[in-house]
Amino acid sequence: MQIDWFTFSAQIINFLILLWLLRKFLYGPLLNVMKSREEKISSRLKEASTKLKEAELKSQKYEKKIIELEKQKSTWLEEAKKEAESFKLELIQEARNEVEKVRDKWMKAVETEKKMFLEELEEQSFQKVMDIVENIVTDLADITLEKQAVNRFISQLKEMKEKDRRRMTKAVDADQLEVATAFPIEEEDREQIDATIRQLLDRKDGCRYKHDPELGFGIEVRSNGWKIGWNMKGYLEELRSEVKTVLGQLEDDT
Question: Is 227 helix (H, G, I), strand (E, B) or coil?
Fold first, then answer.
């Protein structure tokens, strides 16, 4: 077979021209576009990588803050619980104090009312007893109650034991011997009392007399802090003690 070198050369030239045209107008722009695309993708990947690292740093930072906030939250809750418990105890203590104050106030009021009642009862009882005793003494002995009190006081002095008489003699100051009575005393009674004391203490002078309502209903002789006498107050004190005992039992029952 015979080769047409002209045709063969022309086809090679055409092929080369085609390659140049393809490189010039197709592969070149396509490669440039691909290279540009690759550079953009690489740049975006770097940017994405940078942003990812920044996001991870921020995420770690936020996690630390969340942990710190959780710790702070637990601390605040614990402090709030302690403050609430302390406030609760303070309220309970204040309530108890208020109850104690009300109870003390009520107890004082009860004690005051009881004392006033006993004083009033004592006064009324004293007057009632005095009226009854005076009526009995007057009816039976045809003498006043004051006169009977003086007679009882004189009998008490005369019945004094020897050791008590010596003690009285030693304690009595002759210049300050005083007879106190809760009622006005008649001259006849004073003379009887003076005579009894002169005989008892072997003295010449009489006594000084003093009207002392604080005695209740009684009569006594006294000097230098020493004294002896008779008083109905002792009976009333015994009555008052019995009344207190009864009131105490009533309070226990209620």
Answer: strand
